[in-house]
Amino acid sequence: MHKSPMVIIFATILISLILGMLARRKKKMDLEQWSVGGRGFGVMFVFLLLAGEIYTTFTFLGGSGWAYGTGGPTVYILAYGAVAYLFSYFLLPPIWRYAKEHNLISQPDFFIKMFDSKWLGILVAVVGVVAIIPYLQSQMTGLGLIVETASYGAISQPVSIGIAMIVLAVYVTISGIHGTAWTAVLKDILIVIVVLFIGIALPIHVGGFHDMFTKINQEKPGFLTLGNGGMGIPWFISTVAMTGLGFYMWPHAFGAVYTAKHERIFRRNAIFLPLYQLVLLFVFFAGFAAILIVPNLQNSNLALLAAVQKVFPAWVAGIIGGAGVLTAIVPGSLMLMSAGTLIAENIYRPLSKSATDAKVQIVARVFVWIVAAVTFLFSLQSNAAIVSLLLMGYDFVSQFFPTVLLAIFARGAVSKVGAFAGILVGVGLVVYFTLSGQSILWGVNIGFWSMLGNMIVVLVVSAVTRDASSKVKESVTA
Amino acid sequence: MSVRWLTIIPIIGIFIGVIFANHATPIVLGMPFLFFYMVVWIVLTSVCMAIVYKFDPTNKE
């Protein structure tokens, strides 16, 4: 019986709950505090909230799992981060400025204000919630695997996912974004230490970096380059473009942008965030080492944990599990909170005549629990690779990009009807490709095809349906 | 010409350069060449962003 991993994992959950409660002390929890932290976060918190995106369960298990199962194409994960941060320098300050000027709280607010249309806001909110669910599911699948593995099977995956969802929902209901920011600090310190440790120790265990890769390259020629499983160079370019541009289109990431105190924060962060993600490299190293340590696993998501358990004593697996739990709680709580806010603020409020602020707040918290329950049910149904779940969510959210881009930099070129049509066509294409079981068409990522179709529709439809000239607001790029 | 155009360099390196860098060998600094190449561009992205930040007049207030 291995008790120590379980003790460590539950202690971690407890500590993060306490942090969440401490963070809310003496703060009046109205919706603006709850979801955008009263727009008072400085460089450090914004950095961690936005970087929280890189170090999720997806990174931890999905990243190593991809290195283990897919090889060379894993490199896209490094590239898209750099592209996303590079674009953030230009993209985020105008979004932040517009949000501050108009007191926006959520992502759909941006569309509502920009195009003066509550229905566009509702559409964006619905697509956002739909995209969040596979992402959340990827976090929960990972969390379930961690707890199941760390308990050496004593707690089964459905039970641990259930526990995880409840912890997450309690956490979000109590503390909102303040708790997330504080837990993010703890998470990032722990995760960097853990990842550097296993990313160096495991490769050394199999004979050092050079020998490890030489051996893998001999055993599986072509595995360490692009081209595996149809994922060649066109796939790389289109996926990096789609995910890099879609990065800040996630409702929770878009909303996290609003928490900043001033706009220079984003420009400064654009310098350091690319370097910060180099830690990911060590996640990949651990996954590659697992090829030699625990070959032929059925479930590639398990590669990292299985290798750690084979090489290290049980308590090390416990600490890694604890870090893994935090990587699920931080982004998971951001996503759950965004989903709750989206539904309450941007679907319930505009559709209900009797909506008071107090009622909207209650609806937000109730929907946190409903979304958690739905995600839990989906997690029981499917055991898809964590990265494919994430990419599916990206396919959806990146459909916002053409409209956001035009709204910011060329407001005159996009009309309300155009924005509507573009998002609908983009999302429709994603659904069509997903249902027909395609993720790559002619070597190119289907999310990219959909985004391209979306862009063309926005431009064409906008050209024939210009907004009444009096209503067109000036571009916000001053 | 705005210093912001400097950001085009990492974009070219990542999106177009990868066509020529898609090799497993030589292994450099313990990494397959493709991974090493991407690491170099991430560092260069950071350097470019630092230069842009420093000389972009918008940040001088």
Automatic annotation (TrEMBL), chain A:
A Pfam family: SSF
For molecular function, the Gene Ontology terms on record are:
transmembrane transporter activity
The compartments listed are: Membrane
Q: How does it sit in the membrane?
A: Multi-pass membrane protein
InterPro entries according to UniProt: Na/Glc_symporter_sf, Na/solute_symporter, Sodium:Solute_Symporter
Keywords per UniProt: Membrane, Transmembrane, Transmembrane helix, Transport
Q: What is its main location?
A: membrane
A GO cellular component term found in this entry reads: plasma membrane
So which residues are the signal peptide here?
none
Q: Per the similarity annotation, which family is this? A: Belongs to the sodium:solute symporter (SSF) (TC 2.A.21) family.
What is this protein called in UniProt? Sodium:solute symporter family protein
State the organism of origin: Alicyclobacillus acidoterrestris (strain ATCC 49025 / DSM 3922 / CIP 106132 / NCIMB 13137 / GD3B)
Q: What is the lineage of its organism?
A: Bacteria, Bacillati, Bacillota, Bacilli, Bacillales
UniProtKB/TrEMBL annotation, chain B:
Q: Name one Pfam family in it.
A: DUF3311
Protein name per Swiss-Prot or TrEMBL: DUF3311 domain-containing protein
